[in-house]
Each structure stands twice: as C-alpha cells, then as structure tokens.
Amino acid sequence: MMHDKPILLYPAYRSGLSTPWGGDGLKTRFGKNIPDPHTGESLEMSVIPGLNSADADGQPLESLLDRDWAGMAGTQVERPFPLLLKLIDAQDRLSVQVHPDDDYARRVENKLGKTEAWAILQAAPDAKLVYGIKEGATKEALAEAAQHGEEIEKLLRFVPVKPGDVFYIPAGTVHAIGQGILLYEIQQSSDVTYRFYDWNRRDQQGNLRPLHIRQALDVTRVDYQPEAIVPRIVPDPHCQREILLDTAYFGLQRLSDCQNVPFTGAITHFSVLTALTEGSLQLADTKETIAFSAGQTVFIPADCAPFTLTCGQCLIAAPAHK
Ligand SMILES: [Zn+2]
After folding, report:
1. Cβ atoms within 10 Å, residue 312
2. Is the pLDDT of residue 214 over 80?
3. CA nearest 23: which of 92, 123, 105?
4. CA triplet 150, 153, 156: central angle to 5 degrees?
5. Distance (Å) from CA 115 to ligand 1 centroid
6. Cα–Cα dist 254/115, whole Å
7. Distance from the CA of 260 to the center of ligand 1, in angstroms?
8. Exposed site from 130, 188, 240, 253, fewest CB < 10 Å?
9. How far away, in angstroms, is 89 Cα from ligand 1 center?
10. Where are the domains of the chain?
C-alpha cells in the first residue's frame, strides 16, 4: 500500500481592503510573505474557493484531496471538507458577530453553520475579546440596544486574554477579536457570519459595513455563558501533551518539548499540525527529514507513513471522528 507523506502547506492571504483591521504581525512574528501591510489572515488549511492553501508545487489543497479523498481526508471524513484553519492578526478590533448552527444555516443559507475556537498566540498587555453577552441580557434588550449602535457595548462580555489562552466559540456565541491580538483559529469550513455591530466604523469612503441584526438575533444563544478552556494534560513520554478541545466538530491538542514523538496516520481522518516554533518531522522508513518554521502548517494525510516529530511547541487539530 502506498502511504502519503506529511505535506507542508502554503497559505492564501486575506489582506488590504478585505481586512482593513489587519497588520504586519504575521510577518514580524512568523516571517510570512504577507501581500499588504494590512494583512488580517493567512488561510493555513483552506479549500475556500479562490483562497485555497497549496503544497510546495502550488497544487491547491482541494485538488490534492480530490485525487485521493480516502487516503488524504480519511475513511470517516465526508465531503465537503470540514475544517478551515487560519492565523489572524488583529491590529484593530473586528466586528461583533455571531454564526448560525448547522440547522439554521442549512435552512436559511443552504450552507454549513460555524463553530470555531481560538488559541491566543500573542496579545498586547491590555488586549480583550468579546466572548458572549452579559448574564441576564435578553433578546429584547439586545434588539433594543442594536437599534442604538454603541448601546450594545454595555451588553457584551469583555474578557482579558494572554498568550496560551484557548476559547471555544460554539455557534450562537456573540464574539469579536480585540485589538492587538494574534491568534490561531480552527473552525467549520463555512463563511456564514452575521454582523451585530461594527463599532460605528466607517471606511475611507465614509461607508459603514452592512449589519445583519435580524439574523444575528435569531441565532444568538442568550442562555449560554461560555467559559475559557482548561487544558487537560495527558501523560506522554515524548512531550507534554495537552488536550485543549474535544468537540462535536474538531479536536485540538497542544504539544510542547517534543522529542521524536511517534506519529502514524489515523486512516479514519487527517490531522493538521501548526508549528509555534521551528521543528522537523522524520519519516520512519526512509529517514527523510521535513523541516518547518514557526507559523507553518503541515497537513498529515489519513494514510500518512509513520514519522517522528521534534518541535518546541505545536498545535495539532483533527476533525471530530468516531
Ligand atoms: Zn467568528
């Protein structure tokens, strides 16, 4: 049987006018080849049309998957490709938004819903997120406040963040990335976003961005108070291994001080490694070494040949599986 090898991925970027809130943090922190001084996102693992990540030869991820779906994505992973992984540099804050769940998104948009999670990589000393709404805030109060712009800020829950923090954002959770934050984002591969509030910002032509208050109110879970994730440490002789998330849509682990951590493709599903420091993989059979730099993402096909991982710290995500 032919085994696949780990694949270094090269990102697509969202920048310039599509992310006016972005900065140059992806370059200064990770040496990425950003296309614009206002670069908001590198799409590290993406099959979004026009924004595919690609291998070293420029082959889009979508065509790599199409060539051998079971071997690449896994025997238990159904189409469409389920996950999207980004690094985000918020030099300025993002809009206050909420995403629908699968039921609502299917019914109203004929798309998948969106549950996401963030791992904070870098944060200014006073950096904050919007993470849910205040306890007791009702739909009526939100609806009323949304008519009056900044009134809504009084109903939002602002939480301070520091590097290493992890936040789970199930569909229906009101959220916004604050100023001065660089983070890793894993999410369902969907683009359905309802914007509640955009801080009354105007673009260079003086225009406000469109809001979607009715849909945002429809999908917001007012009874839900999200909590920051407490990592669960699992014993591993080759590294410090923390389970950050194990959810209905994806799992996420953080590995630190990795010395030759053995790894084999899971057959049922792919996984995806994002390096937070430089490191390398060594294939067990051929001894071939694949080096990667901090901020780089490596796709690990479901039928990947065995290898060992050496790295200071990385995040490894996988789709939910049986
Ligand atoms: Zn979001």
Report:
1. 14
2. yes
3. 92
4. 155
5. 8
6. 19
7. 35
8. 240
9. 14
10. 7-219, 232-319
- Tell me how far the alpha carbon of residue 191 lies from the centroid of ligand 1, in angstroms: 9
Contact partners, residue 247, CB within 8 Å, separation at least 6: 115, 117, 168, 170, 320
Rounded distance, CA 318 to CA 161, Å?
A: 25
Band of the pLDDT at 11, cuts 50, 70, 90?
very high
Catalytic residue among 195, 202, 241, 254: 195
Handedness of CA 234, 237, 239, 240 (dihedral sign): positive
Q: For the segment 47-101, what is each residue's pLDDT rounded down to a tens digit?
A: 999 999 999 999 999 999 999 999 999 999 999 999 999 999 999 999 999 999 9
Distance from residue 118's CA to the centre of ligand 1 (Å) = 10
User: What percent of the residues of the chain are helix, what percent strand, and what percent coil, each to the nearest 5?
Assistant: 15, 40, 45
Does the N-terminal peptide bond of residue 37 adopt cis geometry, omega within 30 degrees of 0? Answer: no
What does the block give as tokens for 272? 């995806």
> Poorest-confidence range of 122-126, 206-210, 213-217, 268-272?
206-210
At the second CATH level, the architecture of 232-319 is: Sandwich (2.60)
254 in active site: no
Q: How far is the CA of 100 from the centre of ligand 1 (A)?
A: 10
Q: Are 302 and 72 in contact (CB under 8 A)?
A: yes
Shared fold status for 7-219 and 232-319: yes
What amino acid occupies position 47? V
In 3D space, the residue among 190, 157, 160, 10 whose CA is nearest the CA of residue 87 turns out to be 10
Closest CA to 99 of 168, 184, 185, 194: 194
Q: Which amino acid is at 173?
A: T
Model-level pTM greater than 0.90? yes
27 token code pair = 């370059």
The pLDDT, as a whole number, for residue 2 is 63
**CATH (residue range 7-219):** 2.60.120.10
Distance 175 CA to ligand 1 centre (A): 7
- Average confidence score pLDDT of the chain: 95
